Amino acid sequence: MNDLQLRKCICLVNKFLVLIAICTSLAHAELSPEMKKLEKSFHYQTGTITLLKGDVVINTGDKFRYLSPEDSAKLLVDGWGNPPSEELSLGMLVPADLSPLEAKGWGAHLTYEDDSYIDDADAKTINYNNILKEMKQRNMLENIERKKMGYEELHLLGWAEEPHYDQNTHIIYWAKRYGIEEEGEGEGGFINYFIRDLGRHGVFNINVISAGEDFPEVKKAAPELLKVVSFAEGKRYEDHRFWDTTSSYGLGALVAGGAVVAAKKVGLIGLVILFAKKFFIVIIAAIAGFVKMLFGRKDKN
After folding, report:
1. Per-residue pLDDT tens for 215-237?
2. Are residues 156 and 21 in the same domain?
3. What is the pLDDT of residues 84-102, one digit of tens each?
4. Which residue, 237, 238, 250, is CA-closest to 119?
5. Could you tell me if 192 and 60 lie in one domain?
6. Is 128 helix (H, G, I), strand (E, B) or coil?
7. Closest-CA residue to 76 (of 87, 84, 68, 65)
């Protein structure tokens, strides 16, 4: 390699490093004044929090922060643009090192279904593809409700992760991928990641809301989330006694929607991912322009 080639190579590397710096800067762009004000209004809690009169215990550790139902509603509606929900919220868990209002921010919404003890005997015989077909039909009804409320339609594209049940922990996981368009594939879109922790008298729900591109990070955080939330002794699935009331449906129906009439629910993803998607589009456009500026003409150096 001669001196001229070496200088060009060094120049190219320097430009690439500048590009990385710009990408990093854009990815951590400051919040708007309105979002900063909303962020300051949140009352984050850490440590031990008890829910449902002590039946469920949250130990946030150093990786998560807890938001009360009131603050969670502000995040979901004012921060992420979701429709107001009538569902009884138990609050949210958000990463300790990341604002939920940032482009890569995400949160886990907590609820509880008092559906009695759910028998897991059908765990190995469930046809999840049939359940997905039913969900897509129901999604059309959900979109009718969304349009009535003035929100954009969100289309269920398929599984981001097919349901799977852990017989040892009595936890079932699955993830659904949504998009603005009726068809799509790949790792984009919007993700609702569902974690259902079966208990003696009901099911504790952890619904994680994220962008499709952030789903791998969310999956990595899932085991940590499960360490944070737990049933109190005597309320766990293994504490079941024969005289306890048993739910009229099993795991398949739990995945499909449980006892809730899903057509009355519009989901939790709302416009949160639209905000994230618009933000990333701005980043991509800026990067594309910068690349063109740097490499689209001959290097005079």
Report:
1. 888 888 888 888 888 899 999 99
2. no
3. 777 788 999 999 998 988 8
4. 250
5. yes
6. helix
7. 84
